[in-house]
Amino acid sequence: TRFEAEGTTDAFRYMSQRKNIGKVVVAMGSREQGAGGREQGGGAATAELVRKDGTYLITGGLGALGLRVAEWLAEQGAGTVALLARRAPSADMEPKLDAIRARGANVVTLRGDVSQADSLTAALRQLPADAPTLRGVIHAAGVLADGVLADTTLEQLDRAMVPKVEGAWNLHRATREAPLDFFVLFSSVASVLGSPGQGNYAAGNAMLDALAHARRAAGLPATAINWGPWADSGMAAEAGRDDAVKSRGMNLIPPGDGLDLLGKLLRTDVPQVVVMDANWSDLLRQFGSRRPALLAEMSVDPAEPTTGSAVDHAFRKQLADADGPMRQTLVEDYIRAELARIMGVPPESLE
Q: How many CB atoms within 10 Å of residue 286?
């Protein structure tokens, strides 16, 4: 099992858990920095992967997260950044594209739908004839269509799953013969830990995780990153769900930190990795005794209650002291508050 020099601490932690079969190796590669001298967002780590003579495709390229990734690629020395989106860039988006160009990259906007194979093929034909060879793909396209599973329609299921499932598969097929240095799938922590009201989104991202493993098994580059929610970009921020995310035990990832980690992860040999800023006691309390496998061996501060029994006892005493009609009101309010907390919605929005 190989770790890069920057991950030496992780290597010792991995070895102490006795999960390794065979040797644990820390690779002491070249530590020289590029001509700029100063690392920016993992610049030294990505110097060999992001090239001036390469084109880099970003799906969901005109979204807030796609534009941040594009700017980061330009900072790393990318020659051409191709932004794929279903719509043409609006007038107020041009300054953002100019800012990316100012960092030295040629910016190309491609109009097409990654979830449609013919549309993706047509979009790739829009690349200029003199564009450098395609060297990297970042699949960041995604759509939310939340709902309780029992009430989810097929259209609602497809809205969240198709950009992930069909989009990733079409990219895989369209670039299979390209000399790619990386093929990054922006997955979500939802496919690993679950997410209330997002069964369709979790399932779509689970396919991305599986595709990364399948590509690695076939000798192709692939990295699925199960991101936690990002601040100022990404779907959680765009939907105004900051408070709901925090109530589930996760902080928002600052974009600078996320991009720095992206640069480091591109150099690892791991097909899938979870990245989140967790408040562990709050996060673990969400699951009680039914923890996902990823968190099965984690402990929680014994001072922190994990069952909510103290709250339940207080509520039972409150019920015992109330008369019949008041009991029903108390129960309704209690269940509404619990559902609102679990689903991350305001209590008054529930019937």
A: 18
The pTM for the full model equals: 0.73
Tokens of 120: 């993706």
User: Does 196 have pLDDT greater than 70?
Assistant: yes
Which burial class, exposed, middle or buried, applies to 129 when counting CB atoms under 10 A from its CB (0-12, 13-18, 19+)?
A: exposed
The C-alpha atoms of residue 141 and residue 167 are separated, in whole angstroms, by 8
Distance separating alpha carbons of residues 161 and 158, to the nearest angstrom:
5
Instruction: Provide the CA 140 distance to its chain's centre, in angstroms.
Output: 8
In angstroms, how far is the first alpha carbon of the chain from the final one? Answer: 52
Is the model's pLDDT at 313 over the cut of 60?
yes
**Within 10 A of 68 (CB to CB), how many other CB atoms are there?**
23
| CA-to-CA dists, residue 135 to 101, 123, 213, 338, angstroms | 19, 17, 20, 48
Query: What one-letter code names the amino acid at 18?
Result: R
pLDDT tier at 46, thresholds 50, 70, 90: low
Exposure pattern of 188-207 as b/e (b: 16+ CB <10 Å)?
Answer: bbbbbbebbbbbbbbbbbbb
Query: Who's near 288: CB < 8 A, 6+ residues apart?
Result: 306, 307
